[in-house]
Amino acid sequence: MIRSFPPFVSSHTEILILGTMPGIASLEKQEYYAHPRNHFWKIIYTLFDNMPVSGVFNEKISFLQDNRIGLWDVLENCDRQGSLDVHIKNQTENDFESLFLEFPGITKIVFNGKVSYHYFSKKFGQIEGITYYVMPSTSPANTMSFENKFKIWSSCFF
Fold first, then answer.
1. Coil/strand/helix, residue 50
2. Which of 7, 31, 140, 147 has its CA 20 to 30 A from that of 23?
3. Which three-class secondary structure state does DSSP give residue 48?
4. Could you check whether the bond before residue 52 is cis, i.e. omega within 30 degrees of 0?
5. pLDDT at 25
6. Does 158 have pLDDT greater than 90?
7. Which residue numbers are catalytic?
8. pTM of the predicted model, to two decimals?
9. Angle between helices 40-47 and 57-66 (to 10 degrees)
10. What residues have CB less than 8 Å from 21, skipping those under 6 apart?
11. CA 158/CA 141 separation, integer angstroms
């Protein structure tokens, strides 16, 4: 059984980015999107014209929060061999009802990949007042080029 991380959300969060479950590299480092070939941080820093990407995880989280962005995963825990979402079994979703009550400023959810959207929408459906965007996964398992991922991701931020 593997477990996701706590949410990185503040009272200023308007955009919540949701992955499915951290991969092996992230679980080992206890940091979101820790795999060196994952495009997540490069996309976010490029969106806000703030390169280079910090190498310090707490600085990355502060950068997100300064831009009113929160980060979490749809699943609280699951069984999974390896890092691929297709191998997820026996999953339990995180408590989004409580999260949205505590942080009512969230008006946009950006799903990092179709699988996170699948698990979220299956359990919670469409939540009134929140707009959903399903983006291509930033994982290195998604072989789409950085340029194409960036172009699509930029469509939901500005």
1. coil
2. 147
3. coil
4. yes
5. 95
6. no
7. 38
8. 0.95
9. 40
10. 2, 4, 73, 74, 75, 78, 80, 85, 88, 91
11. 27
